[in-house]
Amino acid sequence: MASIPTYRWRFAPDGLATRRQLRALGLRPGGQDVAAQVERPRRRRDPLVAYLYSIEQAKPVRPMTPAKWAALAKANAARRICPECRRDAGYVIAPSLGMCTPCAYPEEQRAA
User: Fold this and answer.
1) Closest to 93 (Cα-Cα) out of 80, 102, 103, 84
2) C-alpha angle 5-7-13 in degrees, rounded to nearest 5
3) Within 10 A of 105 (CB to CB), how many other CB atoms are there?
4) What is the pLDDT of residues 47-73, one digit of tens each?
5) In what order do the strands lie in the sheet with 16-17?
6) How many Cα neighbours within 13 Å face the side chain of 48?
7) For the whole model, what pTM was predicted?
8) Vertex 53, ends 38 and 67: CA angle to 5°?
9) How far apart are CA 67 and CA 91, in angstroms?
């Protein structure tokens, strides 16, 4: 297995970018292999590693279709519905509670 070039933090050559940097440019890796990696040293732990991709070989991000927008809206709406009272909470329900705040903390317990 061939090793990939490794650069120190902030010393990567121009023309290479991480996934996040590609996304900020409106690009995606597009199936290309990792071109290099950047290592950021940390004290008493293994270094952080970020993979780099060629900007020239990157492809544009696929646009969202109306069906994808609808599916995303439906998924986000489902996160707002309380499973106890079946009402829209008006906010995303915390997974730690699993239900809206009024159902998790009824009035009887607050007064006591």
Assistant:
1) 80
2) 90
3) 12
4) 999 999 999 999 999 999 999 999 999
5) 6-8, 36-42, 45-54, 16-17
6) 6
7) 0.68
8) 125
9) 24
